[in-house]
Amino acid sequence: MSGVLSPAQIAHFKAEGFLSPVRAISAEEALEYRNRIEAFEAQSGEEVNKRLKIKAHLAFPWLVALARHPRIVSAVQDILGPDVMLFGSSAFAKNAHDPRFVSWHQDSAYYGLDPHEEVTVWLALSRASVESGCMKVIPRSHLGPDLVHEETYDTNNLLARGQKVEVDESLAVDMPLEPGEFSMHHERTVHGSPANLSDDRRIGIAFFYMPAHARSTLGRRSALLAGGEDRHGHWDRDLEPRYDLDPDSLGFLEAVWATYRDQSKTTQAARAG
Ligand SMILES: O=C(O)CCC(=O)C(=O)O
Q: What residues contact residue 65 under an 8 Å CB cut-off, 6+ apart?
């Protein structure tokens, strides 16, 4: 499948640094995936935000399939070209009447990619409205400078380090989504989301795509081929789950998480020194 995005949508993404909404799956399918996530939470006794981080797709084959969904991958290819890889994915859930938020930030400060061309697809599995704390973006911020982040470690912040930048909020644009729709933003686009004031959970999965020519600036890492071919070999391959909660791919995920935490400590030590 190609050409999911119209020329006007592609031009909008390039000029503004975001695009929303685009439909990937039906509302019924989104509910089915939400149910699977909530069954996993019931079984593990942990909120999805805790376990399905960094490379959530390594937990379930159906999340790998969703990351490779033809409509999502084609939309990404419309922006990035034919050869696209997924280096990460993360669940972002806010409960009903949940004060937790995502501070204004640029993903490019942390993703360790060169060049900065990553595109995030945020797929709504429940309604992400202004009331339930949908994402907001600062248009055209992807064309501006790399901003300095302050790491706050605020416990109500869904970002691991509570990183934030100062922005003029009057410029912000909301990206409300119905279940099964997704938004796209460039890794340098400043974005964030407020608390959930609604009566339902706001659950989304963010998929992080890059062109296969992108290199890691954080040492050798792994990724999943999502579309086209990898003619560059800059990335090792993610160990894909053979079945739900495959211990091998979960072990792989744990090892990636541990490296990420170590890198985070090293970065903090370097800043403190
Ligand atoms: O779920 C949210 O509100 C924020 C997600 C986010 O920061 C991202 O997908 O890059």
A: none
Return the CATH number of the domain spanning residue range 7-272. 2.60.120.620
Q: Does residue 190's CB lie within 6 angstroms of at least one atom of ligand 1? A: no
Q: What's the CA-to-centroid distance between 25 and ligand 1, angstroms?
A: 19
Question: Is the shortest distance between the CB of 204 and ligand 1 below 6 Å?
Answer: yes
* pTM value surpassing 0.90: yes
The radius of gyration of the chain's CA atoms, rounded to the nearest angstrom, is 17
Ligand 1 centroid distance, CA of 232 (Å) = 29
Going by their DSSP bridges, the two strands 119-124 and 136-137 should be labelled as unpaired
Ligand 1 atom with the shortest distance to the CA of 107: 10
- Strands 136-137 vs 191-193: parallel, antiparallel or unpaired: antiparallel
Other residues' Cβ atoms within 10 Å of the Cβ of residue 272: 6
Q: Which atom of ligand 1 is nearest to the CA of 122?
A: 9
Q: Using CA atoms, how far apart are residues 230 and 51, in angstroms rounded to an integer?
A: 29
| Residue among 88, 90, 94 nearest 52 (CA) | 90
Spatial distance between the Cα atoms of 1 and 3, rounded to a whole number of angstroms = 7
Residue pLDDT, tens place only, 5-14: 999 999 999 9
Q: What is the pLDDT of residues 83-125, one digit of tens each?
A: 999 999 999 999 999 999 999 999 999 999 999 999 999 999 9
Ordered by start, the domain boundaries in the chain are 7-272
Cβ proximity of 179 and 31 under 8 Å: yes
Is the shortest distance between the CB of 122 and ligand 1 below 6 Å?
Answer: yes
Distance 94 CA to ligand 1 centre (A): 11
Q: Which atom of ligand 1 is closest in space to residue 134's alpha carbon?
A: 3
